[in-house]
Amino acid sequence: MSDLKNKRVITACLCGSWPTRENNPAVPYTPEEIANDAYECWKAGAAIVHVHVREPDGTPSIRYELYEETIGRIRAHEDCDVCINITSSGRETGPDEERIEPIVQLLPELASFDAGTLNWQNRTIFENHPRFLEKLGLAMQQANVKPEIEIFDAGMVYNAIYYMKKGILRAPCHYQLVLGAAGGMTNTVENLVYLKSILPEGSTWAAAGIGAGHMPIMLAAIAMGGHLRVGLEDNVYYHYGVLAESNAQLVARAKRLLEEAGLEAASPDEARQIYGLTRKV
Ligand code: ZN
To answer: Confidence class of residue 95 from pLDDT cuts 50, 70 and 90?
Structure first.
């Protein structure tokens, strides 16, 4: 086993559900575009890609065939061993089974587990009913897919702890702290410090700031020993008023920042060791 002490995992969140080509023309929509971005991000230093899918016109989707084609295209790159994380929240609501199916059929290393419901960006309700979370957690255990517990607000950490006690989630858990989505916690360093302070001992964690919080949260996470998530899902800009050219450009910057701090971007296999993931392909 290599020395993992100085390794930090970079996850690339490629398109999410919300950013459009009007926001940034580089947002990938089709399975081919998303898979190409995944490959380019892996080459740039990402160990994990977080995958949503879109209909051809960019509408958020949870259609199984789109996940199947996208994941198939990523795995078709023989030299690419990137870890795959499938969202369970490609739509902010929807039939439980449709949200779970791509995870149990396509068997990514990780999948998102959003530990609560919230008003999302002042537009809609991001619904994660307790019934859905119980089904999702148990389905992931059975499929040996590690939950990435997405936290938008402090109460969601306590929900996750409840599900750990109930056996729906198994410790040690992995958390993605996402700050700056309206309806959740704002993207301040103080909020990040607080969230980290309430995570159960032994957890791994990464952080991401949406929009303007992208850089401050990334820099704070590096300083605090956390792992990183970057990509057009969270942030379509490179600098204030300057659009990012691609997901890979954002990954390359994160890797450079790690190196300037005397750290290194973890390889996919190192990420598997750090997060406790089972290699699937
Ligand atoms: Zn996502």
So the answer is: confident
Strands (E), the chain: 7-8, 10-13, 48-51, 53-54, 60-61, 83-86, 110-114, 118-120, 124-126, 146-151, 174-179, 204-209, 227-230, 237-239, 242-243, 264-265
- Report every protein residue that has its C-beta within 5 angstroms of ion ligand 1: 16, 87
CA pair distance 55, 39, nearest whole angstrom: 20
Report in angstroms the alpha-carbon separations of 124 from 47, 120, 194: 32, 5, 27
Q: How far apart are the CA of 178 and the centre of ligand 1, in A? A: 10
Q: Ligand 1 mean position to 13 CA, how many Å? A: 6
d(CA 211, CA 142): 36
Q: For residue 102, report the distance from its CA to the centre of ligand 1, in Å.
A: 14
264 secondary structure, DSSP code: E
Q: Which of 176, 159, 160, 174 is nearest to 229 (CA)?
A: 176
Confidence band (pLDDT; 50, 70, 90) for 3? Answer: confident
Dig out the tokens for 93 from the structure.
């609501």
16 CA → ligand 1 middle, Å: 5
- Ligand 1 centre distance from Cα of residue 114 (Å): 10
Number of C-beta neighbours around residue 167 at 10 A: 11
Q: Looking at residue 2, what is its pLDDT? A: 57
Span from the CA of 224 to the centroid of ligand 1 (angstroms): 23
Express the helix, strand and coil content of the chain in percent, nearest 5 each: 40, 20, 40
What is the tens place of the pLDDT at every residue in 209-248? 999 999 999 999 999 999 999 999 999 999 999 999 999 9
Predicted TM-score of the model (pTM) = 0.97
Could you tell me the distance, in angstroms and rounded to a whole number, from the CA of residue 230 to the centre of ligand 1?
A: 11
Q: How far is the CA of 90 from the centre of ligand 1 (A)?
A: 7
